[in-house]
């Protein structure tokens, strides 16, 4: 049984994230989507909102579960005995950040735990959570870029602000 973690801020989840989840769920027996809580950051969505939205989005993927955690990624990964940590790669800018993080994590992970990178699908390569937030905040349309199930919730966030 191989168990992997796909981790990130997911503030909010996009179709780029969902594509990585769907593909990774076919590669591992169990995939946990881990929402990172960084007390120094001020996300648009609370931890509870992000976890609930991701559960709704992934409810048709039977081997995918959702969790959240604070602190050092490697501590969570070692404690829960994951085999791999999945990350997505869009552009060279992602690569520079990801290689640094993977190499640091390689020192911190228990032996045998790997970082695994999936290339973005071309149709999602330009999507980021921050760009989605900017477009929605300026009343732009993000149809096809975020999961249909959470579209209303994203729009409502700005209407209620
Ligand atoms: N297509 C494909 N992949 C995508 C897309 C897309 N359109 N958009 C994003 N992704 C990938 C990202 O490259 C990333 O791999 C993943 O999806 C999650 O993305 P985000 O933006 O939601 O999350 P990040 O990159 O902000 O998460 C960074 C962490 C919070 C995971 C990182 O900072 C961390 O591990 N923090 C914990 C503290 C720690 O352990 N620090 C030491 C690290 S060495």
From TrEMBL:
GO terms for biological process: coenzyme A biosynthetic process. Keywords: ATP-binding, Coenzyme A biosynthesis, Cytoplasm, Magnesium, Nucleotide-binding, Nucleotidyltransferase, Transferase. This is Phosphopantetheine adenylyltransferase. It comes from Hornefia porci. Reversibly transfers an adenylyl group from ATP to 4'-phosphopantetheine, yielding dephospho-CoA (dPCoA) and pyrophosphate. It is an enzyme of class 2 (transferase). InterPro entries: Cyt_trans-like, PPAT, Rossmann-like_a/b/a_fold. It catalyses: (R)-4'-phosphopantetheine + ATP + H(+) = 3'-dephospho-CoA + diphosphate.
